[in-house]
Amino acid sequence: EQRLTEPRGGEEIVLSAGNTLRIELSANATTGYQWRLLPGMNDRILELVSQDYQSDPHPLGMTGVGGTAILIFRGVEEGETPIRLGYARPGAPPDVEREIAVSVIPR
Fold first, then answer.
1. 40 in the Ramachandran plot: left (φ > 0), alpha (ψ -120 to 50) or beta?
2. Which of 5, 10, 12 is nearest to 26 (CA)?
3. Which residues contact 85 (CB under 8 A, 6 or more apart)?
4. d(C-alpha 87, C-alpha 97), whole Å
5. How would you class 104 by CB atoms within 10 Å of its CB: exposed for 0-12, middle for 13-18, buried for 19 or more?
6. Can you name the residues that pair with 18 across neighbouring β-strands?
7. Taking 90 as the threshold, does the pLDDT of residue 107 lie above it?
8. pLDDT digits (tens, 9 = 90+) for 74-101
């Protein structure tokens, strides 16, 4: 598994087919904002396997605590495709966008 923490956009990743890429981004679900996959990724080359959110450790009862959005992708077949991510409230355009270039190569 390859890991990319806090990408700023413009990163170029090489991933072998069958292997996974874990992207971790700061987030705060209590604000209504979330990271989401934007159109443009070729899912014949790369697939989103899972998306999760982990809250940062905090005292019981404390609200408004941030955390980490975790997206896991798997290389499917050889090719190149972007991963475009947006940080937005549901139904709103993204306030922040990140684009990561991924090349999937044979095993």
1. left
2. 5
3. 23, 25, 35, 36, 37, 38, 71, 97, 98, 99, 100
4. 6
5. buried
6. none
7. no
8. 999 999 999 999 999 999 999 999 999 9
Q: What is the mean pLDDT of the chain?
A: 95
Angle at 16 between CA 2 and CA 13, to 5 degrees: 55
Q: Pick from 99, 71, 79: which is nearest to 2 by CA?
A: 71
Length of the chain: 107
Token readout for 14 is 């090489």
Q: What is the pTM of this model?
A: 0.92
Q: 105: which 2 tokens?
A: 């190569």
